[in-house]
Amino acid sequence: MQAYLALLACTIFISASFAAETEKPPRIHFIAGPDSHAVDQHEFIAGCHLLGNKFKSVFPDTEFDVSVGWPTEAKQVESFNAASLIIIYCDGYTKHQLNNHYDKMEKLMKAGTSLGLLHCGCEVDSVKKGAALRRWTGGAYEKFYSIHPTWTRPSIYNRNH
User: Fold this and answer.
1) What would you report as the CA-atom Rg of the chain, rounded to the nearest whole angstrom?
2) Close Cβ partners of 87 (under 8 Å, ≥ 6 residues apart)
3) How much is the pTM?
């Protein structure tokens, strides 16, 4: 339940800021990475549909499409090229959905398309690719430099007394 509430809050926050910047109904294209984990873990495709439907619940005029992997079918390519927001939900490094597509994404970013990265979508396999993500989104995960935050919540009960 906590994960669902966090997802909903994130969706509403992104939706509100996104809608404020556009005059036409938002068109979102989700790129879902292929299944790579056990069932019920990192459901990229289902997560994209869930987020798309949450956007629609806040902004009913929102149009969204989901492609599994980089869009290749004519309808998906058309949706992708017309998107005002592209969200990539995938594994990173060598499995990243942007691999081999940085030139295309650079053109879309220069044209004013917005980009959102979920899960390991900020983890790339080279300094050059990291520089591109930092330019487009403000951040990137760099292997052997960045860290995933972990912490232990201190107990309110001190057993040493």
Assistant:
1) 17
2) 28, 29, 30, 31, 48, 51, 115, 116, 117, 118
3) 0.74
